[in-house]
Amino acid sequence: LHDTPRPNITRHHHHQFILSGHTGLHAKLMGEYKMEEERVNEYPLYKKAEEDHYIFRNKGGTWMVVAGRASVDEDAGFIMTQEPAQLPTSEGVTWEYCDDDEWVPDDTISAIDGLGRIAINLADNGGHTACVALLEEAMNKAREQAHEEALSATESTP
User: Fold this and answer.
1) Kind plus residue range of the DSSP H or E element containing 67
2) CA 111 – CA 55 distance, rounded (Å)
3) Residues with Cβ within 8 Å of residue 73, at least 6 apart in sequence
4) Cα separation of 148 and 142, whole Å?
5) What does 106-123 look like in DSSP terms, one character per residue?
6) Distance CA 79, CA 26 (A)
7) CA-to-CA distance for 83 and 89, rounded, in angstroms?
8) DSSP letter assigned to residue 14
9) Rounded to an integer, what is the distance from CA 48 to the centroid of its chain?
10) CA angle 48, 53, 57 (to 5 degrees)
11) Which of 45, 48, 58, 147 has its CA 20 to 30 A from that of 111?
12) pLDDT digits (tens, 9 = 90+) for 20-50
């Protein structure tokens, strides 16, 4: 019996991002989240600045937004991704929120990483050329990471 190497998932995760869009029942959970040292289910735990709100990847692979650290251990949240995702900022991730024990899709919710936030700010302030350059840089980094992951997967397969 041999141990298979674990992927270094930290390098693929953003150290901070903004959860935005929801203006309803759980609007207080929107804001900037930063990566903590702690891991939950082998993935980073994110904490909202100066609040007791967290985002974590649950055992089923979906990202959950919770109020209170105890809710992380209980695997119970108010907002979550509709499908499992590698990152809360992954392209195509859709979110839903809990309303009286019913999960309601909310396509206004999104998690935006640091580069995406800068690009949006530049576009809003007329810096379209810089915005395009930043988005191209982000896409190139994503392609490089995907290539590295594919190589790592090939190398770790017996």
Assistant:
1) strand 63-67
2) 11
3) none
4) 10
5) ETT-EEEEHHHHHHHHHH
6) 8
7) 13
8) -
9) 13
10) 95
11) 147
12) 888 888 999 999 899 999 999 999 999 998 8
